[in-house]
Structures are given as C-alpha cells and as structure tokens.
Amino acid sequence: MIRHLFTLIWNRKRANFLLVAEIFFAFVVLFVLGSLLVDNYRKYTAPLGFRYEHVWEVAMDPSGQPISRQDATLQRLIQHLKTMPGVRSVASTRSNTPFAFSDSSTDFKAGSHSTNSDIYSAGDDMQDVLSLELAEGRWFTRRDEVAAHPPLVISQEARQALFADGPAVGQIVRAMDDKEFQVVGVLASSYRGRGEFQELEPAIFQRSESLVDPNDSANFDQPRLLIRVQPTATAELEQRITKEVAAVTGGWKATVTTLPEQRTIRMKFALAPMGGMVLVCGFLIFNVALGLFGVLWYNISQRRAEIGLRRAIGATGRRISGQFLGEILVVTTFGLVLGLAIAAQFPLLGVMGIRLPVYLTSMVLATALIYVLTAICALYPSMLAAQIRPAVALREE
Amino acid sequence: MENILTPTATRPHTNGTVPGVATQPVIQLRDIEKIYQTNTIETVALNRVNLTINKGEFVSIMGPSGCGKSTLLSIMGLLDEPTAGVIELDGRPVQSYSDKELAGLRNHKIGFVFQSYHLINDLSVLDNVELPLLYRPGVGGKERRERAYAALDKVGLSTRTNHFPSQLSGGQRQRVAIARALAGRPEIILADEPTGNLDSVMGEEIMELLLNLNRQEGTTIVMVTHDEQQAHKTQRLIRFFDGSQVS
Fold first, then answer.
1. pLDDT given at position B7
2. Residues of B with CB below 8 A from A316's CB?
3. Chain A residues closer than 8 Å to B99 by CB
4. Could you tell me if residue B22 is inside a domain?
5. d(CA A41, CA A45)
6. Quick check: A143 contacting B, CB < 8 Å?
7. Can you give the residue range of the structural domain that contains B66?
8. Which of B80, B107, B141 is facing A314, going by the closest CB pair?
9. Is the pLDDT reported for residue A231 higher than 80?
10. What is the chain B residue with the closest CA to A317?
11. Which one has a higher pLDDT value, A64 or B134?
12. What pTM was estimated for this model as a whole?
C-alpha cells in the first residue's frame, strides 16, 4: 500500500507541487525558528555560573569629587557597608555587572593558544557575593597586591581555550597589550554575566587594582558595588544604603537595583524578539494549516468517484481515511525531504553560527511538527472521505 | 500476442433455468425495497423486488431510465443498503455484516464494471488492474503483478500495461475495467451499462468479452443495459419499470 501511495503521489506530482512547496516553506520557517528556540533553550538551561538572588547592585555617580580621591572614598564606603546589619558581603566592580547591557572583552594568549574573552573587574569579596565556585586554585586576596603578576580567575571555557587539557593554575597569560597575568584560580563552570541567553564563552576575572579607573575622568565607567544581603532584607535596607553612600562619600548619588530585577529586564530584552518571531511564525503556520485543510477538503470532493470505486472493490471506510491520511503524509515526506536538504546546508555553511546538535534537534522537531500538523489537517477531510456512500459517489460521475 | 477470450456463438436467451447450469443461487433478493427520502419527497426506487441469480448465469436487466436498475445493482453489490428486505449471498443474509465484512465480500466475490469505467487516471493500466488485490490481505506485490498481467492478457491488453487511461480508447478503457474486475477472480460480475459509452463496434467487442467470460470461466454476470440486442444475447432478461420487476 505504501508503494501504491508513493506511485499515486508521484504520478500526481504536478497537482501536488504547490502542496509540497507549502510544506517545504513551512518546514524551513519552523526549522529556522526551532534552531533559534532550541539554541536559546540550551543556553537557558546551562548553568549561569553564579547566584544572583539576594544580590543588589549599587551604581554611584561620583561627579563633583576629584578622581584622585574617589578610590579612597570607595574603599572607605565598602568597609562601612560591610558593617551594616543585613549586609553579608560587598565587592567592587565596573559597569559590566551581571545582566548589564555592557560588556568588555580582550584577547589573551597562553603559549600557542589564544582567545577573546569577556573580562570582569572583581573585588576580593566577589566570590562570596556571587557564590562563585572554584574548581582549582583560589580567589583573589589582598596578598595579590604584591604579586609579581596581577592575578586572574578564569572560567572553564577560558581554561579550555587557553590551556586545553594542560595545567592552568600558576600559568602566565599575556593580554593584548603584552601585560602579563598569572592564573590563580579556575571556576567550576562557565560564567555568563550577560544572563541566561549568553553563549557559553570564555570569561576572565581580573582583580580590581583600583576601584575607580584613573583614566576615566568623565566617570563614564561609574564605580559599582555588588552587595549580597540577607534573604530577609527589605526596601528599608535599600534606603539605608542610599543614605549611607551619600553620608560616607560626601554626596555621591547612588541607585540601588537588585540583580533579579536586572535579570528580568535582560530576559524581556531577549525574549521579546523571540516572542515576536514565534507569533509571526505561528500565524504563518496557522495559515499553512488552513490552506492544507482547504486543499485536502477540495481534493476529496474532487475524488468522490475514486472513493466510490475503492469502496466497491473492497476498501473499508477506515482504509479510505487511512489512504487519504497516508497520501498527505507522503506529500509531506516529499516536502520534508526538500526542506531537510536545505536545512542540512545550515550547519555545513555555518549560516546561523549554531552548534550541530541544535540543528539536528530542530530538524527532528520541525519534521515531527510538520507531520503532526499535516496529519491533523488531513484527519477531518479523511474522515469525511470514509463516510462517502459508495453507491452515491459512483453514480455522480 | 493478445489472448482475448475465445469468441463463441451466442446462446439464445431464455427466461428460466439455463440447460446445463446447476441452479445454485448466489444472490437472492427477498422483498427488497429502496426508498429515497428527502424533506418533502419520498421516492420509491425499488418496490418489493424478489430475484434470484444462479451460479453461472448471465442475466441482463433492462428498463427505462430511473426505474431502479442501477439501485438494484448497487444493492446486489453490497454498495447500498435496502430500506427493507433481505439480501442473501451464497445463502447467507448479509444485513448484519460489518463494514469490514461487506468490504471483504465485495473484494473476494464481486467484480464491478461501470459505464464510465471508473479508472484512476493517475495510475497506469497495470496499477489500475492491481487495485482490488491491494485490499486483499495476503496477496503480495509479485502475485498482484502476475494476476494483473494475466487479467490484462485475457482482455487483450497485455501490451498496454504501462499506458495511462487517457492514452486509451473507450473500448480499451472498458477492457481495463473488466481486467480489474477479473484480477480479483470474483464469482460474480456486476456490470452497469458496460457498453453505454461505447460505439456499436466497441460495444460488441465488450459484450463478446463478457459472454466469453461467462461461458468459459462460468462467471456469474448481472448486466444492466439499455441495448435490447445485447440483452437478448444473455441467458435471462429481466425488465424493470418504476421500481418493480415486470418480467
């Protein structure tokens, strides 16, 4: 019967051409969208590398104070905040805080290996603030101030890129400006400061030598603090921190936000275009489904005599509906074969820069979805075909 | 070389039992009624029809258009249900049969030949002839091919197996339809005006084919026709008028 269905569809290839084309385009759209969604899902489910709950960010505007005094003011502020009830730990950082729309990257080289990595400025308490886990070595300490080479803590991706399977801790890496650093620690996993939808990329933490960039006279890269607070902390603590910043620094303006809030904003920013695409594709697929439904219904009304004949020569109603369902699945197969041939070019040509397993998953999902969609569209017309009374259908021609 | 069933002289038509043919009923209709009901009109297509078709008979049914001939053939072929009455096939009433059982009976016992051939235009001659065997469990692809070739050989179309219906003449199409009916090796062939769309020469050719099938293979044939001359070539002629058998 399968051979019969293929013969029938092949012999009707002209009539089925548009249907095959419709299924082909629907598949390609679903495959592209699916690749994006699957890729984002893969990223979303990968570990962030840090804990953002109960972490607050304090952005400060030190305008008005000479830049030469800002560093000392900030050191004093950190010590002061650490003593506040409700505060667990405080670490300084720069503008590329977790979930911020700001990033900084540079090239690093270790022997024959090199990589471009996100670079994060971190204070000695950052490990505690972000609950960073180390697989090897240690986090920064005050002793690093006198180290021969400024220390670095690197993520697993950076470790892999710079040292492959060789040892990392104690190794010297060179930045783009030929400045040498020494690796003192390796994170247990990735670090994705730009949030859940960031690719698993190398990340390197550099100890904050000075809390304020001495060359940033315009305070473009404003100093920031990350504060881990007690889980019971409320808005009242937020107000006290703001007041404390103003009191200790002599009038710096402070804005306190929480990392969960920042994360929500980042998520919305990432999800909005995806949602838009899903909506547009959903509308397209809905139209394809309606089109398929209409074409199948029309086909069946055009083939009533054939249905009558098949019933006369021994087909049951169930066989008739099975045949029409089978036919649409064969047509779908033709469309999918073409679609899969195009989809296979994506990983070969590196069209979207997505990994092969994601493409393969999307191919399987899009294929399954198209089969389900066409089967659903064919179900009702096929049932109608099965109900056609053979004597009436044969008399109609 | 084409192997059309050998033509033989036609027998004179009789209205009763055919000499040499055992009277073993294959189809029996008892008090068959068929009423088509719409919201406002009730049309009686068949009115208490009693009819027995014996094994090996070639029966023709005649009557004016709309007298219920085709309806009768549909009911005999288990394509339609009567409003009232009993149909027996080989002595067994079939009213209580399921769709699957009825489809099985149609597939194994009955072959249909229609006025407008009802060939599937997108299938080759061979594929069209194979069609009934597709619905028969246990018949593999190779056997289907062999039986289809054999059936086409019988109707003299073994050289047209890869042609499509649109490439054939009306007579050839009807021969393909007959081959399709023969491929399933049915005991009964129900032919609804098989020569109705053909010119007299082609019609004669098809009629000869049916007569030879009946005589050489003992196939029971019930044929609806408007052609008095052809009807008289069959063993029994039944006339219908307004849904009732009149002779």
1. 44
2. 99-100, 103
3. 316-318
4. no
5. 6
6. no
7. 55-78+95-245
8. B107
9. yes
10. B99
11. B134
12. 0.77
Distance CA A375, CA A379 (A): 6
**B116 vs A390: CB contact, 8 Å cut-off?**
no
pLDDT for B238 equals 92
Residue B206 lies in a domain: yes
Kindly state whether residue B12 falls inside one of the protein's structural domains. no
Cβ contact, residue pair A312, B106, below 8 Å: yes
pLDDT reported for residue A333: 93
Residue A12 to residue B122, Cβ atoms within 8 A: yes
User: pLDDT of B172-193, one tens digit each?
Assistant: 898 899 899 888 889 999 999 8
H or E stretch at A95: none
Pairwise CA distance, residues A283 & A291, whole Å: 12
Closest chain A C-alpha to B118 CA, distance in angstroms? 7
Q: Residue B184 is part of a domain; what is its CATH number?
A: 3.40.50.300
Instruction: Show the DSSP H helices in B77-140 as ranges.
Output: 99-109, 125-134
Q: Are strands A151-154 and B110-114 parallel, antiparallel or unpaired?
A: unpaired
Is B3 within the bounds of a domain? no
pLDDT at A134: 96
> Would you call A11 and B80 a contact, using CB atoms and an 8 Å cutoff?
no
CB–CB of B25/B88 below 8 Å? Answer: yes
Q: How confident is the model at residue B194 (pLDDT cuts 50, 70, 90)?
A: confident
- Tell me if A314 and B132 make a contact (CB, 8 A cut-off): yes
Beta-bridge partners for B29: B51, B87
When divided into structural domains, chain B yields a total of 1
Residues A74 and A34: beta-carbon distance below 8 Å? no
| pLDDT given at position A2 | 82
Q: Dihedral sign for Cα A41, A42, A45, A47, please.
A: negative
Residue B42 in contact with partner chain A when CB distance is under 8 A: no
For A250-282, write each residue's pLDDT tens digit: 888 888 999 999 999 999 998 999 999 999 999
CB A181 within 8 Å of CB A172 = yes
pLDDT of residue A345: 93
Q: Which residue of B has its CA nearest to A1?
A: B134
Q: Do B106 and A313 touch (CB under 8 A)?
A: yes
* A7 in B contact zone (CB under 8 Å): yes
DSSP string, A289-346: HHHHHHHHHHHHHHTHHHHHHHHHTT--HHHHHHHHHHHHHHHHHHHHHHHHHHHTHH
Which residue among A8, A314, A395 places its CB closest to the CB of B135? A314
Nearest chain B residue to A2, by CA: B134
Angle at A90 between CA A87 and CA A93, to 5 degrees: 150
Give the gap in angstroms from C-alpha A326 to the nearest C-alpha of chain B. Answer: 15
Q: What is the pLDDT of residue A41?
A: 92
